[in-house]
Amino acid sequence: MVVQDSTDAGDARVGVRLEPFLHQVGGHLSVMKYDEHTVCKPLIFQEQRFYESLPLAMKRFTPQYKGTITVHLQRDSRGHLSLVATPLKENRGPFKVSTESAAVALWQTLQQTTGGTGGAHPLAQWQLAHSLKESPTTSLLRSDFHLNAPVSSLVEDAKGNQAERRSFNPWGLQCHQAHLTRLCTEYPENQRHRFLLLENVVSRYKHPCILDLKMGTRQHGDDASEEKKARHMRKCAQSTSACLGVRICGMQVYQVDKKHFLCKDKYYGRKLSIEGFRQALHQFLHDGTRFRTELLEPIQRQLQALLSVIRSQSSYRFYSSSLLIIYDGQELPERTLGGLHPQEAAPQTAHSSSSGSLTKVDIRMIDFAHTTYKGSWNEHTTYDGPDPGYIFGLENLIQILQDIQEGE
């Protein structure tokens, strides 16, 4: 929804009410949807500097950086809080978010406050005050929230038990609730916050299947406190990060037979053994009816290409960054591909073709708040050569996918 922001004297600016990004499967910072092709997240200066000085060879493996915006809280007449974005002058341009958007209403409802304290209602108490038209592009609340949901999600706990069925992946909404609570309690309501604008790398997919992998054998940044350093080292030692250089941080995979997303979170990923990690990769490529064998080769090819790029980046250390593997759970009908098998017809690149409709697989690096390199801001240590932990993780990931392919 487009809203007016006239808080700055003499400057009535048009703002955008941010929506929850419902395909966030991992991480702890809230990611918001700015428009159909753009997401935004709280600005961390070190990450901004990384995007602004990004090596050319890495651009195909990272979201496109689109600049920054200012964001502030706004309370409506019913006491609902929203996050409203105001584009900076260099980012000005047309933007519209439909007032019929179910995600906007969800965001308003999620951010209801109690007693003026700024705390959010528990999830079980959220109720929508009005009905909404079904949105074909969003996967939202379950039916007892009075929303039509085209795609549901089945959430499994760390032991594989079916914990709860919802019509959205709940991880992103948990991040939103925590972020909103933090903003309400730690800052004045009219405080301006800076956010990064980034490409929405799943916007072209009908049912985006996403695997979020925490890469490397070390997760703490150079500036971490001793307590934080010890905590991250313990998590790595107790997970596949230590033995494989990679662990699962989140996942959603579309099940075509049941027409819902199967979701896993970081707590599930931390408990996996090496064999459990292999089985989880297999599950990520299984649509409920068959194993998507045709995806193995393009995934491996892109991972090999990324490996070559990482090996060429001297001094870079991608501490605590993630790698996304993305594909569409909605297979294209063969007749739309001129009679060719989808694998033969689709260009296997990290970006879409000019039409954008035939891309099979995407590999993207994200989350660079703790990335360090020669010349980076607040550089604590200068490292020589490429990142050995990241390379170790990529090599093991490729090998496990090769083993799966041979087994199939």
TrEMBL record:
The keyword Metal-binding is annotated on this UniProt entry: no
EC class: transferase
GO CC list: cytoplasm; nucleus
SUPFAM superfamilies linked: SAICAR synthase-like (SSF56104)
Pfam family, one: IPK
Disordered, as annotated region: 337-357
GO biological processes: inositol phosphate biosynthetic process; phosphatidylinositol phosphate biosynthetic process
Record keywords: ATP-binding, Kinase, Nucleotide-binding, Transferase
InterPro entries associated with the record: IPK, IPK_sf
GO molecular function per UniProt: ATP binding; inositol hexakisphosphate kinase activity
Name of protein: Kinase
Organism: Callorhinus ursinus
